[in-house]
Design brief:
five-stranded mixed sheet, about 170 residues, 10 strands
């Protein structure tokens, strides 16, 4: 059996894939080696009667946790400094976000299934760290993710529209 942290990672990937599929986006696990990006979402558009990649892409760093602090307005997550620095880098030409999947502490509650539905509890939130200041911390730094930034079909659609319009995330 996979260790718990790898099961959490696999579930966060499945969650993102499900949201991407429902959003009509291509989900790509692009690299043999992990250099800070776990997967990319690609916008698919039409050129005449042909469907193809439009060239608009969103890179994701995935995290999964059972211990984030959730307040009324925010999800507080302790991110490794290395990941923080990779995601905040203003010199990166593309779009990158952090996606944090929240799971119940009790693993038996992560999913439930019937013939009618497969439920994954709880959900994931996203945050763009681009341009944030450096940290003096050595190991982790706390990031505050607005609870309105739910990684959902609607949320991803808005993100991709902003990318296509050249807007900041």
């Amino acid at each position: 059996m996979l260790p718990r942290n790898q099961r959490q990672e696999a579930l966060s990937r499945a969650y993102v894939r499900a949201v991407a599929a429902r959003s009509g986006l291509l989900c790509d696990f692009p690299r043999e080696y992990d250099y800070g990006i776990d997967l990319s979402l690609h916008h698919i558009g039409r050129r005449g009667s042909r469907v193809s990649e439009s060239g608009f892409r969103l890179d994701l760093q995935l995290k999964s946790t059972t211990s984030a602090q959730v307040t009324t307005n925010q999800v507080l997550y302790d991110l490794e400094v290395k990941a923080y620095d990779d995601l905040r880098d203003p010199a990166v030409s593309g779009y990158r976000i952090l996606v944090v999947m929240l799971l119940p502490p009790d693993e038996s509650l992560w999913t439930s299934q019937t013939e009618d539905q497969l439920v994954i509890r709880h959900c994931a939130y996203w945050l763009s760290l681009r341009g944030l200041p450096p940290t003096t911390n050595q190991r982790t730094t706390r990031v505050a993710i607005p609870r309105g930034n739910v990684f959902s079909v609607e949320g991803v659609t808005v993100l991709m529209d902003r990318i296509r319009n050249g807007e900041e995330l």
